[in-house]
Write a structure and sequence with these properties.
- The protein contains seven helices and 13 strands.
- It is an alpha+beta fold.
- Strands 1, 2, 3, 4, 5, 6, 7, 8, 9, 10, 11, 12 and 13 form a 13-stranded mixed beta sheet that branches.
- A hairpin with a 7-residue loop joins strand 8 and strand 9.
- Helix 4 crosses helix 5.
- It is elongated and about 65 Å long.
Length: 310
């Protein structure tokens, strides 16, 4: 690797923990928690609270670090292999946006993984609060290195955040709060009319004061009456009661206006409620070797937007 003549790659060692946490935090986005030793342990095991079923498809990750001539840790990459077909995964990669380090880590991953399709930045890890995929505006060097290596990108989410509390927002009437059965420790807020749920929201517990709004749903016949805004206000109030002082959400707004998943109204709702855009999140894939069967994500951030049905 000519671009890494002054660097060496080796497996992660326990003594690397402190500099690796600093490396990860160098890429931390607004609305994301500081990396901790406990988070790192879980990420290196391939688990995240909201992603356990997904990780069941993969073997334990292998973490390699890049060290410069002076012994400083300057990069790290986590890779894993899917059991059913040996397809590869670049789980996460950090390099302080140094092009040579990014290219060297990606080259290593492609050499270490079997000659099969490889995915990169496909879902959230234990190092984040639901941050799925690569924030391309904050990580342009990593994005460019992936593309130079032949990866194709796909835009997945609009990532937004807001400060709490938001006392100006209305609250929903007749709302109850129950444990969510799909996401660990999450809470589901429901508005019921005549024995059926007409609107709901799911929120995740705060991490370092950062809560997450996983989604809002309003059934078709209940829309246009301000119910979505009221449920949003109740969801943010519930997060504040849990100790959150800020909140993040993810909107799958990649479809043009007028499409089945048009999120124009949702984006307008969030912006009027004080949310600002942080970045857009992209995932990447490299097709090589035998093609892998199509699949559906086991768990992923549900669209934080009104959807039909309840």
């Amino acid at each position: 690797m000519p671009s890494l003549t002054s660097l060496s790659l080796r497996p992660y060692e326990p003594t690397d923990r402190t500099p690796l946490l600093a490396l990860i935090d160098a890429d931390r986005l607004p609305g994301q928690p500081r990396a901790t030793a406990a988070m790192l342990v879980r990420a290196m095991q391939g688990s995240a609270a909201q992603e356990d079923p997904w990780w069941g498809e993969y073997g334990p990750p292998s973490v390699q670090v890049a060290v410069d001539a002076g012994g400083a840790l300057v990069g790290a990459v986590s890779c894993a292999r899917r059991a059913e077909d040996d397809a590869g995964l670049i789980q996460w990669l950090h390099c302080r946006e140094d092009a040579a380090v990014a290219e060297g880590l990606i080259a290593h991953a492609l050499t270490a993984l079997p000659p099969r399709p490889v995915e990169a930045f496909q879902f959230a890890t234990a190092l984040t609060q639901g941050l799925e995929a690569l924030p391309v505006r904050h990580r342009p060097v990593t994005r460019a290195a992936l593309e130079r290596a032949g990866f194709a990108g796909e835009r997945l989410w609009r990532y937004m955040r807001a400060e709490l509390p938001r006392p100006e927002l209305p609250r929903a009437v007749g709302l109850d709060i129950v444990d969510d059965t799909e996401r660990r420790a999450a809470r589901r807020l429901r508005v019921r009319r005549e024995g059926r749920t007409v609107a709901e929201a799911v929120v995740g517990p705060p991490v370092q004061g950062i809560g997450v709004l996983w989604w809002i749903e309003v059934c078709a016949e209940a829309r246009g009456r301000g119910l979505g805004r009221a449920v949003l206000g109740s969801a943010l109030a519930a997060l504040g009661d849990l100790g959150a002082d800020q909140v993040v959400l993810y909107v799958d707004d990649d479809e043009p206006p007028g499409g089945e998943r048009d999120r124009t109204a949702a984006n307008a709702l969030y912006q009027s409620a004080g949310f600002t855009e942080v970045d857009h999140l992209w995932s990447y894939s490299l097709h090589r070797g035998a093609a892998t069967p199509g699949r559906t994500r086991s768990v992923a951030p549900a669209p934080a937007a009104p959807r039909p049905g309840a």
